[in-house]
Amino acid sequence: MWFVTPVRAQLSPGALSRAHRQLDGVTRCGTCHDFGVGSRTFKCMECHGEIQSRVQTGVGFHSRAYRTSSSQADCARCHMEHNGEGFALIRLDRKGFDHLAQTGFLLQGKHREQPCQSCHTERRIPMTARAEVKVKDLNRTFLGLRQECTFCHEDQHRGQLGAQCTRCHSQEAWKPAQGFSHSGTHFPLTGQHQATACQKCHGPKPGVEKAQFSGLAFKTCQDCHTDPHRAAFRETGFKGSCESCHTTNGWKSNVPSAGFNHNTTKFPLTGKHAERACQDCHKSSDFRRPIAHERCQACHQDPHGGQFAARTPGSDCSACHTDSGFKPTRFDRQMHSHTAFPLEGKHAALECAKCHEPRGRATLYVTGKRDCSDCHSGAHSGEFAEAPYNNRCHLCHTVEAFQTTTFSAGRHAQTRFALTGRHVSVSCNDCHKPLATDGAAAAWRQYHFSSESCDTCHADPHRTRLACETCHTPAQWKEVQPFDHTKTGFLLAGAHDVKCVDCHKPPGPVFSTARNTCSTCHATEDVHAGQFNETERREECSSCHTPLHWKSGDFNHERTRFPLDVAHRNVECGKCHKAEISAGAKMIRKYRGTPIECVKCH
């Protein structure tokens, strides 16, 4: 019996999605796949020209997400087909989406608060871009948007100021236009013009819908103001303009000499200078005589005693003061950032008087203090005065807080004592304790030690002269590393191959005072009933026995008073050294006092 499998099931890995279902069928595979020799390739860009154009021009999300490849196989990394009609080809993590990194358009201010669909909607897509979008429902696409403000927002200026709205406005709010400065226009605002409302000049005028921001006439005062003199000066032949006698500070704020514009000179009169009488500067009637004015000190006494004399002409006093008055000074914390000592961290919150002690005209502003030690007393009692630190506090501390140190375990590895094992988890204060001076703890802690050995911080529980690292490691105290007992002069062999605590017993344990004689440890019972404890002929157990075996037959009889000859060598020990009852009523074998005369045995 034959079972026929459909040809489609043999060739297709699965049904296409709803978007591509018109391409389903074994005869349509070549529409998307290229069956040439080599790795698999796709033809996605042949249909999706809108994506190809963005990849080629480097615009939008796909230009950043797509990894350029002639095979176009990278499309399948995000859009996987043959998973059925219900499978979503587009997957987007909106919460984790980085709009700047992945599209090139940074969301700021009000834009950051908007939901995606407020911008990515059909009504925001221009007609010129709709034809290339494949998605029928334009409310479901992210393509087609332009980054210019006017494609989403109405141009309130009706094209008068161009399309670069961000030159004046920000994404935080339409008003105020923080980026706009009238000083950058052809008509900088001075005097009372600065207090005039914008509508006074730009409208909109009655009966006109839009305000006028370009094309305004402003060459002469009469373009906005009527002539209160009714052309009387023109009739007298005076060819000067209104500015010849008046200033923008006010109609009645005329210049010292009617008809003369002091602004045409090298020293325009502004601020307090405009209030001075001509004779205050021009001592004689000769107005053509040059007057020194490049530096303020040419007319004014230097109240700072030459502290700022090194400044370039024209920027000496004006860096902090204005001609509107010597006080208040314009020098603030922001300006302090341009000095040799910017105010950062804790310094930014200090009052000026903390560093510049008020002394009237004798107040010192140029202190010459740059290093921490110039103002702060040494908190470490001179421990870091030498190289490589040289009292450079910034190597470990920041201006944010003294207690928050930047000295890390990695930096500690560069010292003579690298932190390893259990030392890594120990708090700094556990080792670096307050110094003791005259019986009292000092305010500073000790960081430099004369020795890095263990007994500098740890008491020696063994009362030995051996270095702790001979047996122990910083990783764990109770896990000792192998110790060569031959260095002590007492070889561990035979029955002596026991645990350390069997000989070096608590409390302690004591190692340096441990004895190496047999009777020290094996003195609980004298099996020889004191035969070898005589004062004159005292002998240790090791004279006859070895740690390998107590009953060893290796005793050398030749060193006794009765060397064994040929016949005696084959005699058992017990034949001569007989057992007898000792004074303690115990049966022992007699060694000392054994007769050596022949007649005693034979």
N-to-C SSE string, H for helix and E for strand: HEEHHHHHHHHHEEHHHHHEEHHHHEEH
Largest sheet: 2 strands, antiparallel
Low-confidence segments, ≥5 residues, pLDDT <50?
1-10
Total of DSSP H or I helical runs spanning 4+ residues:
20
Q: Give Rg in angstroms.
A: 51 Å
- Helical residue percent band: 10-25%
The chain-level structural class is mainly alpha
Which word captures the global form? elongated
Average pLDDT value?
Answer: 81
Residue fraction in strands = under 5%
- Give the beta-strand count: 8
Q: What is the terminal separation in angstroms?
A: 116 Å
Kindly report the spatial arrangement of strands forming the biggest sheet. Answer: 1-2
Structural account:
The chain has 602 residues and is mainly α. Among the domains are: 7-150, no CATH class; 291-331, no CATH class; 540-602, no CATH class. It has 20 helices and eight strands. The chain has helices spanning 7-11, 44-47, 49-57, 60-65, 99-103, 109-113, 116-119, 127-130, 198-202, 232-235, 278-281, 333-336, 352-355, 409-412, 428-431, 500-503, 518-521, 566-569, 573-576, 598-601, and strands at 33-34, 41-42, 246-247, 250-254, 434-437, 440-445, 579-581, 587-589. Strands 1-2 form a two-stranded antiparallel sheet. Strand 5 (434-437) and strand 6 form a beta hairpin. 2% of the residues are buried. The model is unreliable at 1-10 (pLDDT under 50).
